[in-house]
């Protein structure tokens, strides 16, 4: 890699690494693994920088992160049965911190692809089409995965009155 | 967006607000990559300096990136001092000297191209004996010395997208591509293939860990000191109509590569 390419890579990392780290964390639910995912993805980007840099490299790196997180979660699931997180009792959520805890725990407990859809759609604000591109699936799959994920998240924070719970938290 | 989705976004923002990328991340990535293929230390100091320099470019990058997504916090709070970017314990390489305050970043040397290649089928040491129909030389090439590349597409436009791209790796660059292939091997991606009397590795590079298209690639050993990397763009691979056709065409290109000298 020549100096100009190095400069471009360093500029990219300086600008986007924290944002990508957050995507990685939300995708895998673990801070240490998120750092590893990010570094691994950036190493791939660095190795291929002479090609990647001609496009916007952020979607490329994000795609590696999200798909690697899904892959790792699936590999772990094959190796051992992960005990499913049990959502806390819905009545105990009186503070914003509780609500965040419940939602994050439920997010972690989602199947990897559903979690990725939530992160890409509702954190990264990608469209259904963009999310489908990242995940290499159809927009129909994105819609159905998002719907299932939201149903679980709603259930975790109080069943059919989820929006009411959220409003009460802020009341 | 409904209330639940809004709330999800807000809560994910709160949950991740404390996270910051390590200030020495560029250093780590570069070290980890270079540790593997042991390239020269030249340019590293410039990169560390560039990391500091790059912080000034953050707002521009955030604005310019066409798909950049707004984040609730600034990306990185500021450049890491050079002393913070050195992690001598993390590697068996000598720690790079921090740049002196009056160091100037060397001007990048211009990357050369391979000149007018005619139909593009012979470049430097390689002759391409077969290409799928309808492809023309793109009039684009790059020459990094120990690796060089050119491509072919439908319209011969140097600004167009590539359909087929071939890299030739020689000398130091061979180690990099070998290690990259080994990485795929270790991850269970791709497969060894025999292409004529040569050995090769077929893999979808870059992405595709969860069904993404990736870049269909054949890395072929053409002697101890030379590797040829034949790549199809994901879009072109779709045009070929399926994995079997893609692999067949990649191998056919590989079978018909000969020395140009």
Automatic annotation (TrEMBL), chain A:
Q: Provide GO CC annotations from the record.
A: DNA-directed RNA polymerase complex
Give the range the annotation lists for the signal sequence. none
Q: What superkingdom does the record give?
A: Bacteria
Instruction: Answer whether the UniProt record assigns the keyword rRNA-binding to this protein.
Output: no
Q: Name one GO biological process term.
A: DNA-templated transcription initiation
Coiled coil region boundaries:
none
Tell me what this protein is called.
DNA-directed RNA polymerase sigma-70 factor
Origin organism of this chain? Planobispora siamensis
From TrEMBL, chain B:
Question: Which residues span the membrane?
Answer: 42-64
Which domain of life does the protein's organism represent? Bacteria
- Is Transmembrane helix one of the keywords UniProt gives this record? yes
**Region feature (Disordered):** 74-118
What's in the keyword line of the UniProt record?
Answer: Membrane, Transmembrane, Transmembrane helix
**Any idea what this protein is called?**
Uncharacterized protein
User: What organism does this protein naturally occur in?
Assistant: Planobispora siamensis
